[in-house]
Amino acid sequence: MIDLHYWPTPNGHKVLIFLEEAALDHTIHLVDIGAGAQFQPDFLKISPNNKMPAIVDHAPTDGGAPISVFESGAILLYLAHKTRQFGGGDPRSHVAVLQWLMWQVGGLGPMLGQNHHFTRYAPEKVPYAIDRYLKETERLYGVLDRQLEGRAFIIGDDYTVADMACHPWILPEAQGQDLARFPNVARWHAAVAARPAVARAYERGKALAAK
């Protein structure tokens, strides 16, 4: 059994997608970030950076005490190792997965998050910041589009945690992007969204957000 501490954001979706894809038994514990639940002492014990998602695995592969994991990229790698799924089937594929997962957690997520902040949530409009992050979003979409040229998924024919990590962050309307300019991203995005496990994860997130 895995406890998932979650709120329906792109980073939260990543881990729920994995749990659905791998059919891992899990329980969702909502972390209402709007209400400051991420700062509660019990949550900080498993996520000291006061960010969700985080997990607690009550059945680790070594049979020992429960293991808690914070940071979405680390969680995906942990689950891929635990289940031996979606992490790249050979050393070269695994390296490719690591590179593109690090690209997402170090670039795509943070930069698009700044796009969201300055275009939608900042208390005042800062034209320089809006322009900077819109342009960086466009550049990153272009990087992903080039990588997907001739590939079904980010590293090739295999669907991996790299796809799970990137997919929830591609929100073209909210990010000022025209997906028609990135045909490979558009094709891939639709294909991942059509996976039953991905659809279930997003629907569960939507239902939880509505409560």
What are the defining features of this structure?
Glutaredoxin, alpha+beta, Glutathione S-transferase Yfyf (Class Pi), Chain A, domain 2, 211 residues, 2 domains, four-stranded mixed sheet
Shape estimate:
globular
By CATH reckoning, the class of the largest domain would read Mainly Alpha
Largest sheet report? 4 strands, mixed
- Low-confidence residue ranges: none
Q: What is the number of beta strands?
A: 4
Mean pLDDT: 97
What's the helical proportion of residues?
A: 40-55%
- The helix/strand order is EHEHEEHHHHHH
CATH architecture label of the largest domain: Up-down Bundle
Kindly report the CATH topology of the largest domain: Glutathione S-transferase Yfyf (Class Pi), Chain A, domain 2
Quaternary state of the chains: single chain
Number of H/I helices:
8
* Physical arrangement of strands within the biggest beta sheet: 2-1-3-4
> How many separate domains make up the residues?
2
Which percent range describes the beta-strand content? Answer: 5-15%
Between the first and last Cα atoms, what is the distance in angstroms? Answer: 24 Å
Secondary structure class reads alpha+beta
Based on CA atoms alone, the radius of gyration comes out at 17 Å
Concise structural overview:
By secondary structure, the protein is an alpha+beta fold. It is built from 8 helices and 4 strands. Helices cover 54% and strands 9% of the residues.
Could you explain how this protein is built, in words?
Helix 1 crosses helix 8, helix 4 runs antiparallel to helix 5 and helix 5 packs across helix 7. The longest helix has 31 residues. The protein starts with a strand and ends with a helix. With 211 residues, it is α+β, with helices and mostly antiparallel strands. Helix content is 54%, strand content 9%. Helix 1 links the parallel strand 1 and strand 2. The mean pLDDT is 97.
